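FORM 7B: Structural annotation worksheet

SECTION A. Query
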Amino acid sequence: MRCRQCEETVAGGGCTRVGVCGKDEELAGLQDRLVGALVDLSVAYGPSDDVPAEVDDLITDGLFMTLSNTNFDKTAFGTAIGDAEKALGPTGSSGGYVFSVDGLDGIDDLRSLKEILLYGIKGLAAYYHHARILGGEDPEVPSFMRKGLAAMPARLSADELIALNMECGAAGVRCMALLDGCNTGRYGSPVITSVGTGAGSNPGILITGHDLRDLEMLLEQTRGTGIDVYTHGEMLPAHAYPAFKEFGNLVGNYGGAWYRQRDEFESFNGPVVATTNCVLPPRESYATRLFTTGVAGIEGATHIPMVGGRRDFGPVIEMARSCGSPVDIGGGDLLTGFAHNQVLSIAGTIVDAVKSGAVRRFVVMAGCDGREGGRDYYTRFAESLPDDTVILTAGCAKYRYNGLDLGDIGGIPRVIDAGQCNDCYSLVVIANALAEAFGTDVNGLPLSFNISWYEQKAVLVLLSLLNLGVRNIMLGPRLPEFITPGVLKVLVDAFGIRANSDVITDMDILGIC
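SECTION B. Predicted structure
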């Protein structure tokens, strides 16, 4: 076992005996075998558009299963490996490619570039999975996933691998745009919404992860039952979609970022539905109340399959009837819903505020949150920002500062939350619109990037930003273990990537002070 795909990996090369996430050596081996089988599939089919849909579904969902904190169910991995080998035919039964970090090119820089590519493709698979659930399709996205996976066993130059990473970023932009269209096409364009974080007296169901279709089905099946539904973590932005506002049983958001879940799921008292990544092996106190859907999996938890385009949440609802109401851990209302359509509707106000000097700078503080103590850096950074700066955010990193009382600037909130991590696309649309209004490019705006990363979707977002030409991104709370000094030099020289360190120093570097 050697895993270093997330920010929490053990320093010095990765997790080798047990993952910080909780996976053991056997599970890590199953994940590597699955990735290897998906690489074999990709080599066999290549980037051609003439590929059976079920093959691309296997690759998409199989990669998603291997993301950090997504699936801990060894049986599910055994099934996925078997499905991939069956799709390969006779050559897939044994002796196929088995992925391992050490099995990549022996040259450290080449291995590093392949790891960045693989983790970017995993993030791409996650976003494409969400789009496919809602009926979205773009053949170029799975085509690139196959092309990128096929590069894992190939001997390629550094220049070829850098080009593939940039191509991954381009595919990321396409995929996030596709997902944005799927979300807004089904649920409407988000609107600015204040979300309560308290708890009511009714029994409740808590839903976490990112899958809006699962939330929709859960709300439909609980309507009129007297059971309240609460969002958790990356589900918070769902409250801003007009379609979800029609459900009176969607009552609020409970808790914060994923890493707090063991305490929050325990105090919730009712059943919890984990729809995608951002789930951890549970405490015994609530293990029987944990359900999973889609690519998520926990050994011993009840998994609710999709049958005929529908999930039956009956067992969850029945359990909720017998549970007490949640313990109130609320801390005030949270604002969300600042997706690109909503922000562009007030673009004139924002442009005027910049021209008048009322808003001097925007700071993108998007990305993932995590358990590391050093992540309080982002809270301190937000608190230290001058009163004439506005934070643009997306992803669960916002939980480090969206509860702070930072006020507004002439009615413009100082924390503008665009939504889930995949809604970083909204931030790009907003930035491009502002650049057009000011007759410049994104790098010419009064705009700084201080991004927190945790897992593989954040790697894709970074590659997407680099593909769009965004420079001088600050990244933290520490740089990935899989980036070698040689690759870091390329990122610094070509794109101005920096590691964050000290709040005051970093503000000076970003031109904020």
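SECTION C. Observations
The chain has a mean pLDDT of 95. Residues 25-186 form a domain with the Substrate Binding Domain Of Dnak; Chain:A; Domain 2 fold (CATH 1.20.1270.20).

SECTION D. Sign-off
Analyst initials: ____
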